[in-house]
Design a protein that fits this description.
Largest sheet of chain A: 7 strands, parallel
Oligomer: homodimer
Distance between the termini of chain A: 69 Å
Structural class of chain A: alpha/beta
Strand order of the largest sheet of chain A: 3-2-1-6-4-7-5
Helix content of chain A: 40-55%
Order of helices and strands of chain A: EHEHHEHEEHEHEHEHHH
Number of helices of chain A: 10
Chain lengths: 263, 263
């Protein structure tokens, strides 16, 4: 996992992603873990405002293993205002402010806003506060809007890297196809003809075995068994396997028949 | 943050959430961090299959601070099959399997599937493998389908707690209202009448100051200024503040006018 190639992983990174601005981060481990979370989500632009233990930070490098490329490019600023100066859309992750009217986004809504802004040529950034205290009002007032993560209200505290991960994750999902798919493994799906041929053979054998009985229920039994196999989205290999299973299962019957004959 | 009240945070927990099954977790810290991630997402049912360092685990308790209630209720099993025995929908977080045809869900699609299943009275669970090795085939074959997290393909590795957090986060989001809202702070939004009165006063003062010039551009200037303030979704308090700002700004002019008069 160690960063023998310090630019590993950047090929999937999206250069137009938001800057991640860590304001007064305390622990190097958290900066390193945040760098990993950023690279997980294809984010490369890390900015540090007055990191407590100075910069560079060996603990951050140790924790970032595999994501050193993010730390290598990180820039350090003396004020939040400097860190966001050239951006034109800044969001702040912070608890709900009581005393001021603000636009509040979920991470998902924020991701949409960031993408729309970037598509118009804008430059975006997201502020994250120090580990315990969070952002101060002088920082959040630089932001256009606030991000709140909907979580269990009885236990909503996240560490710094987790907060970066969730916000970055939502940003990345806006690119990623969502939904369910069936992987093909090494084999393509069976054609309707292939599976119909198997069903027909199975039904003949069931009929021989007396399973399609009584006759008035046979159509229902056939339909249920077809539905079960069809729902499984069989591959052509799996249909071949089931033919083999079927042949093997009926063999004893044939063998017994042979035995009966030989007696 | 320490768990002085070990049941703190459970009031937001949803008892019908999926079981989180950690198969052969190695480090207590990771189990503790996973417990925190679970409680963040209102998940309470932790199951441990052959935890390497036995159970209970002091490192897990130290890391879980605030989420001890999850560890207290955790159950330990000797096999994955036992841990999922009474469930009827099991998803496995794992890398893509090459050799088998499988349904693969994103965390978002998985969350939808889990909720639909639970709504019908089903019991669900999600398998997470050991820290480095991941789930083995004998475990994943117990699962109905697989979850893959769409992340930077050049750097997609997550630690155990982060994987639990992302999957749990998506599960929780299915309940959480999504989008952008404007918080009201301590004050309600201004009524149209309140803001119109301010705009009218502002326009009169701008006119007096010669700003609405040349006259054929005045309608456009008026419209742009209204749009700017309206876009800000002013509260009634903010409208009062702007009246005060306006009064303060025109005072020098009035004072100068007074001075002029006095000269």
């Amino acid at each position: 996992m160690a960063g023998t190639n310090r630019s590993r992983g950047t090929e999937g990174a999206e250069q137009r992603g938001p800057a991640i601005i860590l304001v007064e981060p305390q622990l190097g481990d958290n900066i390193g873990a945040a760098a990993r979370a950023m690279l997980n989500c294809g984010l490369m632009d890390m900015r540090l405002v007055r990191p407590r233990d100075g910069w560079p930070n060996p603990r951050a490098e140790a924790m970032a293993s595999g994501a050193l490329v993010v730390l290598d490019q990180a820039r350090v600023y003396q004020s939040t205002a400097e860190a966001v100066a050239e951006l034109d859309l800044v969001l702040a992750t912070t608890a709900r402010e009581r005393d001021v009217s603000r636009d509040v986004f979920t991470p998902r809504a924020a991701a949409e806003r960031l993408h729309l802004h970037t598509a118009k040529g804008g430059k975006t950034g997201i502020l994250f506060g120090p580990e315990r205290a969070g952002l101060v009002n002088d920082d959040t007032i630089l932001a256009d809007a606030v991000i709140n993560v909907p979580l269990n209200p009885g236990f909503s505290s996240l560490n710094l890297a987790q907060a970066v991960l969730l916000v970055g994750y939502e940003w990345y999902q806006a690119y990623a196809p969502q939904g369910a798919e069936t992987t093909w493994g090494d084999a393509p799906p069976a054609t309707v003809e292939q599976r119909e041929y198997f069903f027909t053979r199975l039904e003949e054998e069931m009929d021989t075995a007396g399973f399609l009985f009584p006759p008035h229920l046979a159509p229902t039994i056939r339909r249920n068994i077809r539905a079960m196999f069809t729902r499984a989205n069989l591959t052509d290999q799996e249909v071949r396997t089931m033919h083999g299973v079927l042949s093997a299962l009926i063999k004893p019957r044939n063998r017994n028949a042979d035995n009966d004959t030989s007696q």
